[in-house]
Predict the structure of Response regulator.
Amino acid sequence: MKSTVLIIEDNEQNMYMLSYLLQKNNYNVIEAFNGKDGLDLAHKHHPEIILIDIQLPDMDGYEICNKLSHNGLPKSTVIIAVTSYAMGGDKEKAIESGADGYLEKPINPDTFVNQMRSIINEKGK
């Protein structure tokens, strides 16, 4: 059975690239272009994986990570911050907010899915 990935990303080009890579690798994809819709879709569909941009128009990804990790989603849900924030401490801030992993943009299309799977496998241990 295909795993479902919710992508919360406001940039259309980034959304297209992530969706394309995931669908090509046999994932179901749900798209949200802002935090409010992302939270609603997460609770409606309970995806196995949630990819979250940190810079969003209505609320930042840290707030979304925090809400998702404390609001009734299955503990097995993997939350990954995918962001261009790459300053010292940003990864730690994402993890403290409830993310299970952190991937920097720009993503590498050749390695992205394997990087995501590595984070999923780490959480499963």
Summary: The radius of gyration is 13 Å. Residues 19 and 29 are 6 Å apart (CA to CA). The beta strands are 4-8, 28-32, 49-52, 78-83, 101-104. The longest strand covers residues 78-83.
